[in-house]
Design goal:
Number of strands: 6
Strand order of the largest sheet: 2-3-1-4-5-6
Order of helices and strands: HHEHEEHEEEH
Largest sheet: 6 strands, antiparallel
Shape: globular
Structural class: alpha+beta
Distance between the termini: 37 Å
Length: about 190
């Protein structure tokens, strides 16, 4: 940060810290106690769509790495694209394997970063539900190094449960680095893994 930044009151965002993802399992315990939401076993990493041989090689490396896990059932990582043109690498685990899911998300992010695709990384998310079908995601903003809750209202097109999001923010403030700027709580409508 330069002198001009200090004088003008500008600050730099927190650098990406993928190790923040490892706080999710303990935060899930707090989340369940405070709100009744439990992990679904699904999570995803979102990034700006990349074409080319280098990305295909990275995807194959991630696939091979996660295929090596013998405890996995189902596909390790699926690649999908959303209606906005973003790509998602989606991991499926049993609901009681949140630690393994976090390892998957960390491995995908790390592989993308190491292979030069860090600037394309947007976010990672882990899915939760309260047992009545109400979805919730804890979203990690890669470029901000922070989390925020996203709670779409089931059956209602493009509407969020803002009260639940604020409740989750308050409940997890001691467990996760929560994004304080609410304008950065971007909706991830139709996100795979949610």
């Amino acid at each position: 940060m330069g002198l001009l930044d200090i004088l003008l009151g500008r600050s730099r965002p927190a650098p990406p810290d993928l190790d923040q993802l490892f706080a999710l399992p303990s935060a899930a315990v707090t989340l369940q106690a405070a709100t009744g939401f439990t992990p679904t076993g699904q999570g995803a990493v979102c990034f700006a769509t990349v074409e080319g041989a280098a990305f295909e090689q990275t995807h194959r490396e991630v696939q091979a790495l996660l295929d090596a896990d013998t405890d996995r059932t189902g596909p390790p990582v699926e690649l999908s694209r959303d209606s906005y043109g973003y790509s998602w690498l989606v991991s499926h685990r049993a609901p009681d394997q949140l630690s393994d899911l976090v390892n998957d998300l960390h491995a995908v992010n790390s592989a993308m970063e190491v292979n030069g695709f860090g600037p394309q990384l947007l976010c990672s998310l882990a899915g939760f539900t309260d047992g009545t079908g109400r979805p919730l995601a804890l979203v990690y903003l890669y470029k901000r190094g922070s989390f925020y809750p996203f709670a779409p209202l089931p059956g209602q097109e493009r509407r969020r449960d803002n009260a639940l999001e604020i409740q989750v923010k308050a409940a997890l403030a001691g467990d996760l680095r929560i994004e304080q700027d609410l304008s950065r709580w971007f909706p991830v409508w139709g996100a795979p893994g949610l």
